[in-house]
Structure formats: structure tokens, C-alpha cells
């Protein structure tokens, strides 16, 4: 059974439109909280945005075929990743609001006794124009557990 205190290891890769080579993957490991309620997995964690002193509060909700990401603080957004659907999101920053659309082609969840892995592949658009093809992987392991924390091997 997954513990409340977890390590959240995220990896994201964006392939920008009209770019020949792939971007470098962005990776982050942070400590967070995990809950399971009403057949839904919840991840809560904070992240600091460069140049700001207030943290951004993040909540990720996962159920089969659906993932929601909510950010509150310096930036605010509610993104919905739902297979074969395009969902609008308004990314509010201190510099203005960006209209984004998220069209997920894959949202998977794999679970084991002491880890969970979420994968989402999606196309990202801004103001109606395609911007990037993205792949996100999230692996959750109990905090303090040594095995299974590094998972982007190979």
C-alpha cells in the first residue's frame, strides 16, 4: 500500500512544432503527499517558480483514462488530460493569461505495491495553434524507499 509521504519523480519531453531536434527532457523530483479517495488517486506537492518567493501548490488527480493538473499560486491553471478529447485551459501568470488546449492521445496508470506510474502523451496548443507534442511520465514511490525511485533508465 502506498504511504502518505511520497517521492514524485516527473519527466516531461516537448517536441516543438517546426523544430528538427528534440528538446532535452525536463526532470524533477520532489516530496509530496498521496491520497486515494473515491477510486481516485491524488498527489499534492509544492514547487518554486524561478524569480518568485511564493510556492505554487499543485494537485494531480488520476483515474483510469483521465488526469487533472491544478496549479494555484504564482501561476494558476486547471489542465484536463482525457484520451481522445481536446480540453481548454487558461494558464494565468503574473504576466497575463495564455489560452491553451490539451489533446491527450494516451493516459495510462500502472500500479504495484510500492510504486505507481502515470504516462500522458498529448498535443499542446496555444491560441488555437499547435505548439508541441508532449510526453509526461510521473512515478510515485514511498518517501525513504530506495528501490524504484530512479525509473528513467534506458
Report on this structure.
The protein is an all-beta fold. The protein has a single domain, classed as Lipocalin. 0% of the residues lie in helices and 68% in strands. The chain is built from no helices and ten strands. A ten-stranded antiparallel beta sheet has the order 6-5-4-3-2-1-10-9-8-7, with no helix packed on it.
What is this entry, summarized?
This protein is mainly beta and 154 residues long. The protein is built from no helices and 10 strands.
CATH third-level topology: Lipocalin
Q: In total, how many domains does the architecture comprise?
A: 1
Structural class: mainly beta
Q: Sum up the overall morphology in one term.
A: globular
Specify the biggest β-sheet: 10 strands, antiparallel
Q: How many angstroms does the end-to-end distance come to? A: 27 Å
CATH superfamily name?
Answer: Calycin beta-barrel core domain
Helix and strand run: EEEEEEEEEE
> What strand order characterises the main sheet?
6-5-4-3-2-1-10-9-8-7
Rg value: 16 Å
**Uncertain stretches:** none
Keywords:
154 residues; mainly beta; Lipocalin; 10 strands; globular
